[in-house]
Amino acid sequence: MDINSFLRRKGKKWLLLDLALIINMVVLTLIMLIFHVYWGDINLIVSDYIGFDINLVFIIVVIVLLPLIYGAAILHVHLRNIKKNNEIKPCILNKIFPIVLMFIYSSLFALLLSSLEQYSRLIPQVIEFYSIFLTIPLSLLLILGLYPLIKSIPQWKNHLSNRILNEEIKSKIILGLLLTGYFFAFASPLLFIPSNVIFGDLPPKPNITAHRGASHLAPEDTIVAGELAVEHGAVGWEVDIRISVDGELFLLHDDTLTRTTNVEDIFPNRKNDRAETFTLSELRQLDAGSWFADKDPYGALAFGRISKEDGDNYRGIQIPTFEEVLNFTRDNDF
User: Which residue segment(s) compose the domain that 93 sits in?
Assistant: First the structure.
């Protein structure tokens, strides 16, 4: 099918709408993949907010993939129709639904990113890092497509109205657009050089402070999380401190004990009480490690970052006191 033949066919705008929906969903899917390191944190934040465990990221990925499949399906149908019938006549649903989907999904993702501002800052860094893998195939496609584009210039000239532009101006406009597009495509990697392709000495490695210890590898705010933080080269760790009802300092992040202990089994009638209403001896009865081995919130077991034996060793870990944490920190020059 040549360009003139394609341009004479009716309903081409619906192909653009289909492509816009697909591109929109692909971009949203890529954003979710960019955040894969933080999926566990996002799930925990949302679960803590709504009061029960939920794999929000998995649900979002599935919800995004469904419109992507829908967009690919209607694009296939429309391409087949324009080839067979020389026109596209979508039903009213396929005219409105893609626009509604793009608006709803883009709005929801904008809301999600605004509520997780610290994570959204990661997007430009990841795009910069992977930009070389995008520009290389794009450059190859542009080189391979140069000859067909030049060959099709007469057809594009004929498509432009003679009443508006004369032959010479049309040629200059088409040539100028091609040269401008190719210039920016090939110059952008040189104008905006990604940091991962720059040669030279690296600056000193920044000091790393472990958030609640090595909380992606061990139960947060426990001594074992501090030990793993030391092993992985952290210079310090951030912990959360609360005061028990009998005046003892202990480590816990949440207001209640339900997420990170077995308080429901030991004190079922007090499972939703604030942690500060418990005595230290009561807190010492709780298992602060099994939840990590059972739920594997960050995929440490699933992806082999820790062994099953390590996970089993977490069972029965107690909530540490602040005194124990200070002693550990001092002894390890942490």
Answer: 1-120
